[in-house]
């Protein structure tokens, strides 16, 4: 799954002339979000270590909107929220789409800015190189690129949100917990 994504992003890095073009390759498509959600539910149903995640998320108060739902709904909902959030960061801080509060939270660069385009490309290439050498997880490339986009735009306060900080560092529940998050 991630290898195909890395190939698609590598192709975009070679052929795209703007950072916004690269976003299309980086973003999670709706069908892929659903497919991964289904795989995470299967993993939850078959892996006892992975089941620990929902208990921790509920105990810590994360994803409260899914608190009273079945654990499988929490897993699917959390993944959908995470992937949609990453997509939104890529859309706003790389592609330059208007955020909810455009006066205070728009991209910091003009569309087509040569410096910005090169910075995004350089960071995406570095993230892919690191992914290839360290066997990154399936969400590594879009998540790390989203974090880089926030940094490029001086929007570090958004990275303080649980979803992005835990994705970046990896959520470990126990020594033998599933290595997906």
Provide structural commentary.
The protein has 181 residues and is mostly helical. Helices cover 66% and strands 0% of the residues. The protein is built from nine helices and no strands. The protein has helices at residues 2-15, 19-26, 30-46, 52-60, 71-95, 102-105, 114-134, 140-152, 162-169. α1 (2-15) packs antiparallel against α2 (19-26), α2 (19-26) runs antiparallel to α5 (71-95) and α3 runs antiparallel to α5 (71-95). The longest helix is centred in the middle third of the chain and has 25 residues, at 71-95. Residues 167-181 have low confidence and may be disordered.
Give a nutshell description of this structure.
The protein has 181 residues and is mainly α. 66% of the residues lie in helices and 0% in strands.
Unreliable runs: 167-181
Question: How far apart are the termini?
Answer: 15 Å
Structural class, please? mainly alpha
Q: Could you give the count of β-strands?
A: 0
What value does the average pLDDT take? Answer: 83
Shape: globular
Total helices: the number is 9
Order of helices and strands: HHHHHHHHH
Helix content: 55-70%
The major beta sheet can be summarized as:
none
Number of domains: 1
Give the strand content: under 5%
Radius of gyration: 17 Å
Tags for this model:
mainly alpha; globular; 9 helices; 181 residues
Structural topology:
Elements (H helix, E strand, L loop, with lengths): L1 H14 L3 H8 L3 H17 L5 H9 L10 H25 L6 H4 L8 H21 L5 H13 L9 H8 L12
């Amino acid at each position: 799954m991630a290898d195909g994504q890395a190939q698609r992003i590598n192709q975009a890095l070679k052929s795209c002339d703007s950072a916004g073009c690269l976003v299309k390759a980086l973003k999670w498509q709706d069908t892929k979000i659903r497919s991964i959600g289904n795989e995470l539910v299967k993993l939850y149903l078959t892996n006892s270590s992975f089941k620990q995640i929902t208990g921790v998320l509920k105990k810590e108060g994360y994803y409260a909107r899914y608190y009273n739902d079945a654990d499988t709904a929490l897993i699917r909902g959390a993944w959908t929220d995470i992937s949609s959030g990453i997509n939104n960061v890529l859309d706003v801080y790389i592609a330059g789409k208007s955020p909810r509060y455009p006066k205070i939270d728009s991209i910091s660069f003009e569309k087509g800015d040569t410096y910005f385009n090169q910075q995004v490309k350089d960071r995406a290439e570095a993230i892919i190189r690191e992914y290839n050498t360290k066997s990154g997880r399936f969400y590594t490339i879009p998540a790390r690129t989203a974090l880089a986009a926030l940094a490029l735009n001086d929007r570090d306060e958004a990275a303080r949100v649980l979803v992005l900080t835990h994705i970046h560092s990896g959520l470990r529940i126990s020594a033998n917990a599933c290595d997906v998050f």
